[in-house]
Amino acid sequence: MTRPRFLPDNFTLNLILVVVIASVLPCSGQTAVAFDWITNIAIAVLFFLHGAKLSREAIVAGATHWRLHVLIFAFTFVMFPLLGLAFKPVLAPLVTPDLYLGILFLCALPATVQSAIALTSIARGNIPAAICSASGSSLLGIFITPVLVKLMMSTSGEGSLSFDAIGKILLQLLLPFVVGQIARRWIGGWVARRRAMLKFVDQGSILLVVYTAFSEAVVGGLWQQTSTATLAGILVCCAVILGVVLLITTYVSRALGFSKEDEITIVFCGSKKSLATGIPMAKVLLSSSAAGAIVLPLMIFHQMQLMVCAVLANRYAARPDAKSEGGAPVKAA
After folding, report:
1. Which helix H or strand E contains 113, and what residues bound it?
2. Which residues of the chain have pLDDT under 50?
3. Could you confirm whether the keyword Transmembrane appears in this record (predicted)?
4. CA 137, CA 72: separation in Å to the nearest integer?
5. Residue 156, phi-psi category: left (phi > 0), alpha (psi -120 to 50), beta (remainder)
6. Domain ranges in the chain?
7. According to the model, what pLDDT value does residue 72 have?
8. Rounded Cα distance, 128 and 227, in Å
9. What single DSSP character describes residue 112?
């Protein structure tokens, strides 16, 4: 039976189902702790498999692809904040003042790591460059985001950021990747022959991140504390920013002559904002009374970027000229 054209792909349907399940049956307490551990393990396995699959030559080429990294960092830490400020006449009337500060806060955050890399992998983009860029963005954000937040909005909170995030990145992402690289000589061929397994881990890690993140928001009173009009305003604000960013990252990368694989990496690494980094930063940088409302746009933007980019990733993956995974060119055309 032919699949109806209007029906989304299976991964997008699974994302919608996960959001519905998290809204009706959110995990909490010890169950939430267990899901958090499962998610961390899935992400670690994902990076271990990527480490075992990718050649060292490809990794070196990805790390030295400076034009791509400079462009992504410019999108993340320059373009996003400028859009948040420039769109104030349009966005501010749609939400409360605190929620508009939340829009500015999410614009100052670094990019996601695991979802950006997983989506790049699904779309058959430049995975080594995505790993280097997304990890670098997360590390730079520890120093750059507080400065941007101070410049873009006034807060009553004081303090300095903890460096626990660096340790988490090293332990959860970099260490499994290095171990996978070491094990590549023994299992590299086995992993390369099982692309379906890697795709399952890619998509499964995203579904787990969506479920655990949305469950936490629901348990925290997301639907009880947000009126329909306010929620609609936040959705419009997030959709406007995400849509503009996706268009800019796509067409700028093409105008600068980057390859299709590099374009994919630029789009998925340059359009993301990290919920995992944003929540701890909000607790440190913002007063406790303001943090709840200010992080709400981030939680919604996080879910929106995952679902929209999942659709884009599957469209990229279906392109006729797609290269085999892991063998994408890593230099601009």
Report:
1. none
2. 155-162, 288-289, 322-333
3. yes
4. 9
5. alpha
6. 29-316
7. 94
8. 43
9. P
- 29-316 has which CATH code? 1.20.1530.20
Q: What is the pLDDT of residue 99?
A: 81
Listed residue (283, 276, 274) closest to 77, CA to CA: 274
What is the Cα–Cα distance from 283 to 242, expressed in whole angstroms?
24
pLDDT for residue 321: 65
In the DSSP assignment, the letter for residue 108 is: T
Q: Which amino acid is at 333?
A: A
Task: For residue range 239-250, list pLDDT tens digits in order.
Answer: 999 999 999 999
The answer to whether residues 218 and 23 touch, using CB atoms and an 8 Å cutoff, is: yes
- pLDDT at res. 12: 67
Q: Is the dihedral of CA 250, 243, 214, 135 positive or negative?
A: positive
What local confidence, expressed as pLDDT, does residue 247 receive?
Answer: 96
Closest residue by Cα to residue 197 from 316, 310, 325 = 325
DSSP string over 301-325:
HHHHHHHHHHHHHHHHHT-TTPPPT
Q: Which pLDDT belongs to residue 254?
A: 95
Residue 151: partners with Cβ closer than 8 Å, 6 or more residues away:
none
DSSP string covering 148-212 = HHHHH---S------THHHHHHIIIIIHHHHHHHHHHHHHHHHHHT-HHHHHHHHHHHHHHHHHH
Report the Cα 119 to chain-centroid distance in Å: 9
